[in-house]
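Protein entry
_____________
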Amino acid sequence: MSRKQRLLAGDDAYALWKRGAVEWNRWARQEGKDWEVLFEGNIPKKEEEGSANFENFVFTGKVNFANATLLNARFKNATFQGEARFNGVQFKSETDFANAQFIQPVSFQHSRFEGKVYFPQTKFKKVCTFAQAQFKEDANFKQTIFSGEATFHKSKFCHYASFIEVLFWREVNFQDAEFFKNCRFESTTFHKSANFPGTVFRAGSQLVDCDFEGITSLGHAQFHADTSFELSTFEMLASFYAARFERQATFRHSKFNGSLDISRAKFLCIPDFRQTALGHHVTLRGATIERPIEFADEDADRLRRLKEMATQSKDHELEQEFFAQEMKAARSTEIPEHLHTQPLMKLRTAIRPIFNSKQFGKVRLHLIGELQRRRLVRLLRLMPNYVYEVFSNFGRSISRPLIGLLATLLAFSGVFQLLAIKEGASWSSAFVYSASLLLPFFGFARNEGRLAREALFGEDYHSAVLSLTGFTEGTLGLVFVFLIGLALRNRFRI
């Protein structure tokens, strides 16, 4: 029998399908393995009612649905023993492949699923491709098993996508795929490479409790909403090179047993790497984290963890940057409970109608006084933080404390000239005396400073104002010299 005679197509294939699963399977067992089946056009036909029901069908040979239109397709418990092609198929209404088995390669390339689609517990034994497929409604792949390579290259998921408890035994490719709504890869296992380069997640994405046992690539991926990798394990290289996170990214309790690469990644919110285990090198070079207008709760703690990661990777520049942001975040997010003012402000609002009455006068005064006290204590508590920022940019600036040192020298030179009691006291003497107090550890300070003091005030002159002024300048000099040394140490890691 020629190959052309072994093609079952058109009305013949349609007629056999109409006879139901029992008749179809009887034919398939007897001679179907030697035939290639081709379904064309609309199933069912436009003038007929019903659905494309292939439940419990067994396809022993090749089957091709390419460019067909299937209404309310039902392939539940179907078995495909030969190669199956669904390229360019339009699946109208719902589509159900629950518990179906594909023994040989299958292709859904360019397919269009216009209703909800179900692939729960479906088994793909060989290569499976959904490249450039479109899922207009929910796509459910819960507990699906991909034993061969799987590709979703440039596929589009327009609604919720579920890959919960899925097993990918070989490489999986989601390159340039788009998820327009929430997607979940919860408890999913990737035994080989997981490739998501250029993938776009436009809504929330959950890759929680996943096992990435091969190389994981999310380079240039875009996350437009909150995303979570909590409790996931990365056994080999995990690359987020040049990825973009526009909302909160969470990696808490994840394990990176291989290298972690987040170089050139961009975070518009502070990522959460707390309680992560890092087994190997972390690459942070070129990563940027946008400074938020307002810090959120726990941002300071998140920044501490990022600082630890930068320290571990020997990236001293980023380490200092994260430390500076941590100091700023702590101002507004880590306020001791006894200094919170918000509860008192809510109390004032609650009793506003009687707040100004005479019988509550003492309560009013006490409440206002407590508010002012808490604000003052908070201001005093934060003062060193602000001073540290202004005068040294949190230990990163050499020029700021140097300018402060020179300004102090000149300012106190003028003060000492004004305080001088001897006639003809020169500004140069005041300058030398100010320098000796500001920099007492230099060799000239003792002798030149003593002579300058005598030129200004004479011998054995004592004054509380003079002593206090000298003590103030010496303290400022010590602070500025320390800040210069700290900046040098941070700059060159002395």
